[in-house]
Amino acid sequence: MKLRARSLSVERRGKAILGPLDLELEAGTITAICGPNGAGKSTLLTMLAGLEKPSGGAVALDDRPLAALHPRERARAIGYLPQDGGVAWDVSVRNVVALGRLPYRDATPQSIDAALAALDLLDFADRPVSSLSGGERARALLARVLAGEPRWILADEPLAALDLAHQLALLDVLRRQSRDGTGVVLVVHDLAVAMNHADRVVVLDKGRVAADGAPQSALSAEIIREVWGVETSWQGKEGAKALSF
Ligand SMILES: Nc1ncnc2c1ncn2[C@@H]1O[C@H](COP(=O)(O)OP(=O)(O)OP(=O)(O)O)[C@@H](O)[C@H]1O
């Protein structure tokens, strides 16, 4: 299963902010999208989720253009977690997570309970979402995506509000999902997370792909210098590398 962007370009207010670029993403892998502020990461993710029409080119899921899919079919296939997502209504955590089942018009308790458990939220299930801390709310929104059991999970900085233990737990959940065949695409600022947990890293810079490949090559000290303008070196062993400045 593939999610493919062909000649994808986005303009805002007459200014090119993304592309044109080609990208082919594989299901069953974790892809990290990295890059400086304003590089176009969130824009790329919304295009891959089919939430907006690009200015040029197209995104296709298994050779079917996203624009041609019924919104419900697209929502079943692709779970999208926006950056700084909020909850418009003050409902219980369980009901927020149940919203993930909307594309199926059911409320399968197993998938809701599994999503609550995966994000360590069972104790919060009956609490109003307004009473949660920022990190707890972020976990509830992620659980909503998991409850939909999408074939693709596209998440914009899903780790940003999470403490260390919950970051590691979430990465573990996403790794298990990818082993089961789900395509996982994460926007991450923490380059060590991308280095240690992604199978592939796409580095965006000023709307263009500056590097794309295995984490060791896409996040080499040379690329980091070129794109972020910072002198760094990687320390530590495979799977537990840290960036030293
Ligand atoms: N509606 C808009 N009008 C004009 N410019 C926009 C609009 N939306 C986004 N941009 C610009 O497009 C560029 C890419 O934005 P995007 O949010 O995709 O970047 P990003 O890589 O996700 O950044 P960050 O790391 O800060 O979240 C930025 O320069 C942003 O200012």
- In the predicted model, the low-confidence regions spanning at least 5 consecutive residues are none
H/E element sequence: EEEHEEHEHHHEHEHEEHHEE
Number of domains as seen in the coordinates? 1
CATH domain class: Alpha Beta
Query: Helix amount, in percent?
Result: 25-40%
Q: What structural category characterises the helix and strand content?
A: alpha/beta
Task: Give the terminus-to-terminus CA distance.
Answer: 39 Å
Find the CATH superfamily: P-loop containing nucleotide triphosphate hydrolases
What is the CATH architecture descriptor? 3-Layer(aba) Sandwich
> Averaged pLDDT, please?
93
Estimate the strand proportion: 25-35%
Structure write-up:
GO terms for molecular function: ATP binding; ATP hydrolysis activity. Residues 3-231 form the ABC transporter domain. Part of the ABC transporter complex HmuTUV involved in hemin import. Responsible for energy coupling to the transport system. With 245 residues, the chain is an alpha/beta fold. The chain has a single domain (2-85, 150-244), classed as P-loop containing nucleotide triphosphate hydrolases (Rossmann fold). It contains nine helices and twelve strands. The chain has helices spanning 41-48, 71-77, 93-98, 109-118, 134-147, 164-179, 191-197, 215-218, 221-228; strands at residues 2-12, 15-26, 30-34, 56-61, 64-65, 78-81, 152-156, 183-187, 200-205, 208-213, 233-235, 242-244. The protein has a six-stranded mixed sheet with strand order 6-7-8-3-9-10, with helices on both faces. A four-stranded antiparallel sheet has the order 2-1-4-5, with helices on one face. Strands 11-12 form a two-stranded antiparallel ribbon. β1 and β2 form a beta hairpin. α4 runs antiparallel to α5. The longest helix is centred in the last third of the chain and has 16 residues, at 164-179. It is globular, with a radius of gyration of 18 Å. The mean pLDDT is 93. The structure holds adenosine-5'-triphosphate. Residues 12-13, 17, 35, 37-43 line the site of adenosine-5'-triphosphate.
